[in-house]
Amino acid sequence: MKPLLFASRLAFICNICFLLCLVIQRTHNFIPQPDIRQMIVVLGWMVAPIQNLVVNIWYGALLVARAPVRLPLWLALTNLAILLLQLYFNLILPA
Question: Residue 93: which of 26, 17, 10, 41 has the closest Cα?
Fold first, then answer.
């Protein structure tokens, strides 16, 4: 279960970067350092959807197999909610 916990935490951090990217996109650049801003954009727009999709598929596979998931419930639900938000902003909104 430790690899899933690590992947879930990484997905959560990337999801926070995704939310920061949405704020940066809709407001002015409030992060003055360009290196930090670029890292947030890469983690938020590129890594977050892929990492979050992998983690949620992993959750789903464990639920289908009826294996015990030893993760905090808030972490799994937050990752799922932000995955739905990512799907909306990346697939539905641009059309």
Answer: 26
